[in-house]
UniProtKB/TrEMBL annotation:
It is found in: Nucleus, Nucleolus; Nucleus, Nucleoplasm. Pfam families: Nop53 (PF07767). One of its GO terms (cellular component) is nucleolus. This is Ribosome biogenesis protein NOP53. The lineage of its organism: Eukaryota, Metazoa, Chordata, Craniata, Vertebrata. Residues 22-48, 86-108, 289-324, 383-406 are annotated as: Disordered. Belongs to the NOP53 family. May play a role in ribosome biogenesis. Residues 290-316 have a biased composition (Acidic residues). It comes from the Eukaryota. It comes from Hippocampus comes. Keywords: Nucleus, Ribosome biogenesis. One of its GO terms (molecular function) is 5S rRNA binding. Residues 32-45, 99-108, 383-394 have a biased composition (Basic residues). GO terms for biological process: ribosomal large subunit assembly; rRNA processing.
Amino acid sequence: MAPSRRLKRVVASQPGFLSLKSSDLTGEVSSRRKRVNKNKKKNWNKHSDINDVEDFLEDIRHQERTTGGLLADKSDDNLFFLDVGQQPKDHKASEQVQGKKRKGKSQRPLRIDLILQHDSLVPPIKDVLSYQQPNAKKLRGHAKRLEQLAAKGVVPRTQRMLLNRQTLNTTAKKAATEANNNPKRDYYDIWGQESKSSADPWYLQQTGKKLVKRPEELNKKPSVLPAVEVIAPGGSYNPDFFSHQALLQEAHDVEVKKRKAESKIERQLAVNKEDRATEETIFQEQVEGLVEEEEEKEVAAVEEEEQVAPVEEEEQVAPVKEEEQECVGGAITLAEKKTEKQRKREKAEKIKEQLRVAEKNQKSKQQQLFQLRSIKTAIKKREKKTAARQKQRKAKMEAQKAQPRRLGKLKFQPEDLEIKLSDELTSTLRQLKPEGSILKDRFKSLQKRNLIEPRERAKFKRRYKLKYVEKRAFRAIT
């Protein structure tokens, strides 16, 4: 509006200008700028010239529509190009041959496609409502927790159940959708005992038609020992000299260990000869207490005489003590109430003690900062000790796997070594005498491998005593 008014004023000031309006005489007066009070808000938009601002904003919007942004922000490569002139004909022909897909005119888009094509480079306004979700914050937290579990390698319970359900559903669907005329179907024996069922696996398991999956713990062997242990080379019917001597040494060590245990029990149960009773010790036991009674009577009489005098003095002093006790008892019952000053003093002392303890703890914590090096060394030593203990514990557990466990009230007793002495060796199998029993060896092997508990042969115990009765026929004969 301002440029047009200025142009009108310039034209009207020229000599020989005639206005076609009837109010020509008052043109100069009306063209003057009207004085308006802009302190009031209602006159801001009414009498303010904002055309230059609107033109500037329209220019910016035009640049965004045509170029996708402001020209001042773009680089020179996006605004200018290098003109190298016309290309040679051969090069043009080769490009046309490569670019052509069919004979005739070059492919150009249709006019209707150009009209419908979106020419604005301004991205469309994002619809905020379409991106809103209920409980979005809660869902983001849940997704973040799932990502943390996935980073640790932990599968959530819901996902595990979903995977198991999917596998069950797929198997059930395959069994249900299998057609009878499918040439790849399994051969079905009509006279077979097993019935082909396509029911739900959970239903089959609950009704007992399908066996429960065996736990993996039951598949582990209770011992790492082999079922049949091969005897040492010295146990052969015609062994090598050194291997036979090694087996004899092993049997000797076992016997020595047994003898040591037996001798230890004998020493513990043996009776010392010095502790046996003699005639003198028997007489002392019989006389004990008879001679000392007379001396004890004399001592008791002297003590009674000494106690007579103090008793009389106590009788005289007794009433005074009773009065004192009554006063003390009355003081305890009639305790005076604490004053406000005493309570305040106790409270101040209590607060002072608390502050002292807190200051002491703070000082101890600050002092620990200077002990970081010693604390680190102590932690390292402790970690080394724990690692050594764990290693030792693992080695002990591995060693215990080859040892029989305590399954019952009896302890496993290994069988004696089956060995022949040097003078019992024979040169042929015909003269060989068998050692041990195969049945007993298998029974001990089951106990050693923790398959059965150690047992003993049941002893027969008679419930009632035998009763001898003489019959008539016996009497008649005798």
